[in-house]
Amino acid sequence: MITNAIGLLFSPKSSWNKLRDNVDGPSGLIYTLALAVLPCIAWYYGTTQIGWSIGNGEMTRLTEASAQPIIILFYLAMVSTIGIIGFFTHWMSSEYGASSTLLKGIAVASYAATPMYLAGLVGFYPSLWVDRLGGCAAVGWALYLLYVGIPIVMQIPEERGFLFASAIVAVCLVQLVVIIVASVILWDMGVAPEYVN
């Protein structure tokens, strides 16, 4: 698992070629279930023990009691998002001349999201600017991995792979909006952060 993550970060094309023959099994799902824990641990620790400040203001921290359900929902959001993106990757594959399975779609989504899982480790020390820069870099690299990986794993020409990956990005953007709306609804229902005085 660690080898796959490092390979995708530093030599994506050769890593996708190695993964191509192993993506029809549960490896992508297991990969997501394991790596999605890393940002959860980091953000739980960072927001409850270290805290953050904006400008020269006081450090702000969450109570452990309010952070626990938020982190659990954060984990569920990551895992379900990968599952949904994987489903749509599989569902759209025939339109682009690729053969796929649900597990293959989930694997593509899982491995492409590797930079985002690893960037979640910045949560150990929450800093607005570091988090934003790390997040932007991770999203950029995840998009690159998706555009490189789709033609390789789905074994289709690069032109079709580009269109296929673009359709998956559209699904990702819809998922982002769904998560934002769900967050607002859940906060209104009582799963809101409480701050340490």
Protein architecture, described:
With 197 residues, the protein is an all-alpha fold. 73% of the residues lie in helices and 0% in strands. It has one domain (24-48, 57-188). The protein has nine helices and no strands. α1 crosses α2, α4 packs antiparallel against α5 and α5 packs across α6 (102-112). The mean pLDDT is 93.
Chart the SSEs and their pairings.
Elements: H1 2-10, H2 12-19, H3 27-35, H4 37-50, H5 64-92, H6 102-112, H7 114-119, H8 128-154, H9 158-188
Helix pairs in contact: 1-2, 2-8, 3-6, 4-5, 5-6, 5-9, 6-8, 8-9
Task: Quickly describe the structure.
The protein is mainly alpha-helical.
- Number of helices, counting only DSSP H or I runs of 4 residues or more: 9
Q: Which sheet architecture does the biggest sheet show? A: none
What is the ordering of alpha helices and beta strands?
HHHHHHHHH
In whole angstroms, the N-to-C terminal distance is 41 Å
User: What's the rounded overall pLDDT mean?
Assistant: 93
Tally the beta strands: 0
